[in-house]
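Predict structure. Chain length: 102.
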Amino acid sequence: MNPEPFLQLDRVIHEKGRLAIMSLLAASPQVSFTEMRSLLGMTDGNLTTHMRTLQEAGYVAVTKAFRDGRPLTTYALTEGGRKAFGGYVDLLERIVREARRG
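Prediction complete.
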């Protein structure tokens, strides 16, 4: 099997916590911090660290607001994040196809 596709995997997305976050955000227009933390079973610190990495890569946009007098932080994929995630999934599918042929 050709190792080249593995070398092309986006390391920002490939980490399992960030892959879970990207998958969740790809399926929703936006997700709140507390909802994401609950759905993914992450601690505040772990989720914050992953979100910072994704935001620095330009994959995730953050919105801070107030709802009923309480702070509300929501996240959504940017256009670049959606494109990067789509490319990542396409590459994984290619790797699986090659492995099945192999």
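Summary: The mean pLDDT is 94.
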